[in-house]
Amino acid sequence: MDKALKLLETNPMIAATAYMLGALVIAFVMWIFISRVLLRLTMKTRTVVDDEIVNALRRPVFLSVLLIGAWLAFDKFSPQDNIRQVVYGVIVTLNIILWAAAATRIAKSVLGAFARNMGEHKLIQPRTLPLFEVVLKTLIVGGAIYGLFITWDINVTAWLASAGIIGIAVGFAAKDTLANFFSGIFIMADAPYKIGDMIVLDSGERGKVTDIGIRSTRILTLDDIQIVIPNAYMGNSKIINETAGTDKKRRLVINVGVAYGSDIDKVRAVLVDVAEKSTYLVEDPEPQVRFHQFGDSSLDFKLQGWIEDPLLLGPARDALNTSVYKSFKAANIEIPFPQRDVHLIKDS
Prior knowledge:
Blueprint (H helix, E strand, L loop, with lengths): L1 H9 L1 H32 L5 H27 L5 H36 L12 H23 L4 H18 L1 H16 L7 E3 L5 E7 L3 E6 L4 E5 H5 L4 E2 L8 E9 L5 H14 L10 E7 L4 E9 L5 H18 L18
Antiparallel strand pairs: 1-2, 1-5, 2-3, 3-4, 6-8, 7-8
Helix pairs in contact: 1-2, 2-3, 3-4, 4-5, 9-10
C-alpha cells in the first residue's frame, strides 16, 4: 500500500491515470444512481417536473466529475503557472456552460409546472410563460457571464460602468419602446383582457383581441381590419372587456317608442312575441319587456334579452329591429317621429 502511494506521488503519469480512472468510475456511478434510482423514484410521483429536473442533472453531473478528474490529473504534471491558469479557466468555463444550460432547462420545467397549475399561480400562466422564460434565461446567462469574467480575471467594474452609461443613453433614446415593454409586462401579469376577448377602446373601436405582444396589442374589428395599439396606450386607457364576466353572454337592449294613446298591453305582447321567436336571444335569462318612460313624443319601451356571444351583437340587433318594425306594422301600432309645434307671433 505504501509503495503504491509513493508510486503515485513520484510518477505523474500513473497518478494522472489513477485520477482519470477514478473520475470515470465516479461519473458512471453517479450516472447509474441518477438514472436508475432517482429517476425511478421521481416517476412514481404525480408530477413530471421532478422527472425533467433529474434528466437535466444527469449530463452536467457526469461531465463535471470528468472535468474535475481531468484537472486533478493535469495538475500532477506541475505545469507552468500561465499554462496552469489557462487550463483551469477552460475547465471552469466548460463547467459554467454545462450548469447554465442545465439551469435553463430546470427553470423552463419549473415555470411550465407553475403555468399548468393556473388555479394557484395566476401570475405565471401559459400566455405569460414566454415572458418569464426570457427573464430567467437573461438572469442565468448574466450570472454565467459574470462567473466567466471572474474566472478569467476580467475587470467587472469597468464593464458594469460602461453598461450603466450605455443603459442610460438607450433609456433616453428608447423611452417609448421601454414604456410599451413594461406596459406589456403589466398587461400580461394583470390580465385585463386575453386573446379571444371582445374589447371596446376609448376611441370607440370594437374588436377581438388576436395577439398580446411585448410592444403592442392587436385587435381585429368586425370590418376585418387589424388595429395595432401600443401597450403604453392600452395600459393608460379605459378598456371595456365584453367577455370578461363569469359568462360569455351579452345583454342586448332594443329601444322602441310607440305613439301616445297606444294599447301598452298590446305593445308588450307584440314585443314578447318578437323575443320568443328570435333565434338570437337565449331562453336563460329569459327576455324582458319594460315600459321605460314617457318620452317627449312617444311611450318608450325596452326589449331586453341575452345573446350567446358578443360577436352576434350586430346581426342580433338588426334581426330584432326588423322583427319589431314588421310586427308593429302588422298590429297597427304606430311608431311616432319627433314633432314640434312652432308658434309664430306677429309683431303689431
